[in-house]
Amino acid sequence: MNATQLDSPGNINDVKMSIVIPAYNEEAYLDECLRSVLEDVRKSTGCGPVEVLVIDNASTDRTSEVASRFPGVRVAHEPDKGLTKARQRGLMVARGDVIGYVDADTRMPQGWIRAVLGSFDADPDTVCVSGPYIYYDLPPLSKFFVRMYWWAIALPIYGITGYMAVGGNFAARRSAILAIKGFDRTIAFYGEDTDIARRLSAVGRVRFLMSLVMYTSARRIKAEGLFRTAAVYALNFISVVVMNRPATKLYRDIR
């Protein structure tokens, strides 16, 4: 069975969870991402049906072709380039009660789906769960600095704000995202995850779990530098928290 080409909203049925993967020119990374996601889907038998959606966001490479190689993966197209626009398209075509968002350069650790669904089942007030990145292709010293960032900076800040999300490693109840009218498509890139976490916190509990890790590529850190990348993300987190909008409008595609 080939991937289903889907461009219209799906009907809610018995799907427990939808995994949404926005992808712009991701032919180099998408194969490994989908392999890891589908393996976790296979090992999550008993959690309820899980669907996998790739949102081809105006790609000019073989992104859709790569996704279409995987049986059971659905492909939807968002012709207007933009991360939040792709996330919104995923929301509109997803059929799951819970929607998990991961990036095309991530590698899902086994047990992620079960951990996410378990968090929602354990607490009806929880509307969003997220966790940190582990960069699988960073040298050891840089990995140490990133780990210290999560424990010494991000976690205490979460304790103050009460919300935090990482864009390529979060899941939310579909009903909660719809209640806040979805993603802010005027946000191009930086701050979009903090914005959705901030607004979701108005309708329920947003949990940031250090145990809910996601492996991801360090391509942006390698291209722009570890400390510069951390500073830009921190600036936009603070800006969204204080001003309800990100400070940085321009960004660079790293491919």
Overall description:
The chain is α/β, with parallel strands linked by helices and 255 residues long. It has a single domain, classed as Spore Coat Polysaccharide Biosynthesis Protein SpsA, Chain A (Alpha-Beta Complex). 40% of the residues lie in helices and 19% in strands. The chain is built from nine helices and eleven strands. The strands form two sheets. Strands 1-4-3-2-5-9-7-10 form an eight-stranded mixed β-sheet, sandwiched between helices. Strands 6-11-8 form a three-stranded mixed β-sheet. Strand 2, helix 1 and strand 3 form a beta-alpha-beta unit. The longest helix has 22 residues. It is globular and about 40 Å long. The two termini are 30 Å apart.
Nutshell version of this structure?
The protein is of the alpha/beta class and 255 residues long. 40% of the residues lie in helices and 19% in strands. It is built from nine helices and eleven strands.
Major sheet description? 8 strands, mixed
Question: What's the total count of β strands?
Answer: 11
Low confidence ranges: 1-11
Q: What structural class do the secondary elements suggest? A: alpha/beta
The quaternary structure here is single chain
> What is CATH's topology name?
Spore Coat Polysaccharide Biosynthesis Protein SpsA, Chain A
Helix residue percentage? 40-55%
- What is the CATH C-level name? Alpha Beta
Over all CA atoms, what is the radius of gyration?
A: 17 Å
Mean pLDDT: 95
Number of helices: 9
The largest sheet has its strands arranged as: 1-4-3-2-5-9-7-10
Q: CATH H-level name... which superfamily?
A: Spore Coat Polysaccharide Biosynthesis Protein SpsA, Chain A
End-to-end C-alpha gap: 30 Å
Overall morphology: globular
Please provide the ordered H/E string of secondary-structure elements. Answer: EEHEHEHEEHEEHEHHEEHH
